[in-house]
Fold these 3 entries.
Entry 1:
Amino acid sequence: MHLNASARIFNNATKLRREETLAEKLLWSRLNNRQIEGEKFRRQHPIKKFVLDFYCYKQRLAIELDGRQHLKAEAKFYDKDRTEILEGYSLVILRFSNDEVIGSIEDVVNLIRHQIIELQRKRLS
């Protein structure tokens, strides 16, 4: 069966949800059920041709987790390009390494909380 681009991206998101990393599991345990400033997050959410690790629709906030493969030069170039494209859709992108999430989850959650508070403040002004 030949799938169109939209179907492929949704199938990929479903696959990624089933095969989450330790860092994704850990961060999801802190993002789900509106635990941070009452904001709802989605896991492996498709946006255009990309699948975002975590996404808060209301605040247009994407959180991306990067494994060690993202340290390579070509991956850094791809990530930079991807971030610029996503920012072009008026999204705010936060990036953390898997190691940051696993080793310092409280620091990561606090940075996310701070970003959400800033976005909420901007929406109210």
Entry 2:
Amino acid sequence: MRVGRVLIHGREVPVTVLPNGALRTSDGADIPKGEAVLLPPTSPSKIVCVGRNYVEHAKELGNAMPERPLLFLKAPSAVLAPGGRILLPEDSVQVEYEGEIALVVGRTCHRISDAQDPLACLAGVTPLNDVTARDLQRLDVQFTRAKSFDTFCPFGPWIETEPDWENLTVTTEVNGRRVQRARAAEMAFSIPALVRYVSRAMTLVPGDLIATGTPSGVGRLSPGDRVAVEVAGIRLENSVAHWPAS
């Protein structure tokens, strides 16, 4: 099942996506897609990201694989709606896409034990683009600024609540050309291991995101580009433009 949020006549409404693509509200009303403005499916209190979780991506950036999950945060203010424009800031000359499988937290979780199932904490999965100012990432050493510019975290539009965990894949396209594709099975740290690890550092609450890392094939974005990330059959599409002159 797929769920999300849309804006209808200025009102935010939770919806379920029907098999025919129509949208249905909780009170049973059907809404044609053309009448709804897509919103990110959650408003995360935090966006926890995992670096270097695919061996080939670590290699392409010249980085060693970490011995344990490498965590960093993106600011919630970086969230961008599906269909919105990724804005390239004048501070950077090398902004890159990073398609990822994002885990959506469904219930409050804290210090998940080895005996507990981490997947029980999740509402499902959604595509996410961990847009990164690569030159600033190298300059700053830590990742906060490079990852957190406004519009640098598009995700959605839907949450797949019953994903095929064994066969999850992420695919990225730029201007219709495939540039990334990988299976979750190729991750250095599995999805259950990541959820457990993060929960032992911070309390996860409904709507939070865990971005599980990007595979190899990252590259630059330029004004006019269209970038799409697909996970579990859900397609996230955004355009790219320069940051407006101040």
Entry 3:
Amino acid sequence: MQTLIIAMTLLATPASPAQTPQPHDLLAGASWKGTQASFTVADPQAYAGLLTTAAASINGKAVGPLLEGMAYESYPADAAMLVKGANVITFRPGKGARGAALKLLAYTPQMLAVDSGPMLGAISSDFFTVTCRTNCPAAVTVTARPVDPSGGKETSASSPRGYYHRLKIPLAPGVKSFAYTLKLTSPAATKTEGPYTVRVPGVGGGPLRIAAAGDSRSHPQAWGGVAAAIAAAKPDLVVLTGDYVHYGQIDSAWDSQFFGPAKEMLATVPTYGVLGNHDQSATVFFQMFYGPTGQGNTRNWSQQFGDVLLIGIDGGPRGASAKWLPPVLEANTTARFIFLANHYPAYSSGPHGDEKGLVTNSRNLIMPLLVNAGATAMIAGHDHDYERSEPPGGVACIVTGGGGAPLYKIDPKAAAKNPHSKFFSGVYNYCIFEIDGDSCTLKAYDLEGKLLDQATYKGRAAAAKKAG
């Protein structure tokens, strides 16, 4: 597995080298003894943060991974590890701990920034959630102001000093849309990012628009195009079906392949996601995705928006979702539309169409539960294409796996694998589900905005009877 160097750059419009502040190496001119260097610092408070190019200890304090299970070649460190005058850094033996590769980079206060995000997560009429990662240790305060000044008061929430930040911010009743800002504060600097404007789903009436896409990994330019198209469509929220990066445990891949190319969409559209096989249950997923269930870091989640019940599951080979799902479906008596997001489709004409333990679990364990509940659709990825299948039972299977991964052609044995296919296209794509009253319209688009496919679904009558 190839390890990539962690990206510690501003996710913004590139500037010329002369305009972009650059960290400087505190070890320039240091006295070396093997992998140990002695260096002098005139004023430790002049720095907002540090970055070592290999695992090390600074003045006896270890510098290591931010998150368990993630692979790094560069490590952020707190400038508070430095002391005025003589300092010592000892690099640990291993890859990168040699020669010119050994650096201790110092960030000046003006370089304090958000590295990953901000990313909107779960949202409702009375709260919204935001996550981000900063390149230096900082406290983060998120402040929301209603777009209509008469719509409610300003609200805010703060996270403690650190790198990863997960915030749940209250919303005043009746707020239809709001603008939020992030204020980053460290001992050396203060910086503000935003504002970003967000609509609150379901407040003020009108249709609910849900965008869906999946398999954004590997080709950042394609994923950037898909994400920009979704943002331009102005959905109320977006559901992503997994495989965000090629190797989930490579920390830097999340910025280069996922967060960076989709910055505008993630900052302005509430995003719900499920895990894919390439994501490797990476701890960064549970830090940056803020779901609606529990503390926001569960594998399986659900939330209702008016007449719509949205569910996400980890459909991996463990099969645990098949035990978690029935009580969720049985407890709901009011939703007229039920959508389930799962990385692994129940039916597919792509190369994974008969994959044992993943696709077959979706078909044999999950799909019958959805049919029994009168659900509308399973939204999946895994195969890198767009496909709509309409199997018996009334639950559509929508594959939207063309978010950036290498595209697939239809399998030569597709007719045997998936006799229920209604439309297939091996292009980059995304979907928009628009729910208005008793009708849901699905439209699938390619990157050029061409309409690939569309279908209409009616709300389940069973829910209306139970509710009455």
